[in-house]
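hey m, so remember when u said the tokens were messed up on ur end? i reran from scratch. heres the input so u can diff it against urs
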Amino acid sequence: MSVGLAAYSVTYNSNQYTKTNWTGPTINTNQIVAVNIVIDGGAFTFQSRNTYTIVVTTARNNIFTFTVTA
């Protein structure tokens, strides 16, 4: 069984960047895949030492939320 990644958003404080028409990778069961979350530099840029919340939505509408520190 596999699932495709369909959308993501990145939030820092009240700033948010969302990509709703993302053609992310398709991931098979028990597979590890590197995923690039690309942010439009004009709308949103990562800053060192800041913590960001990332939400990834699958094509089946499963939602995964995690945080990263740049």
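this time it looks ok to me. The chain has one domain: 2-69. if urs says something different then somethings off w ur setup not the seq
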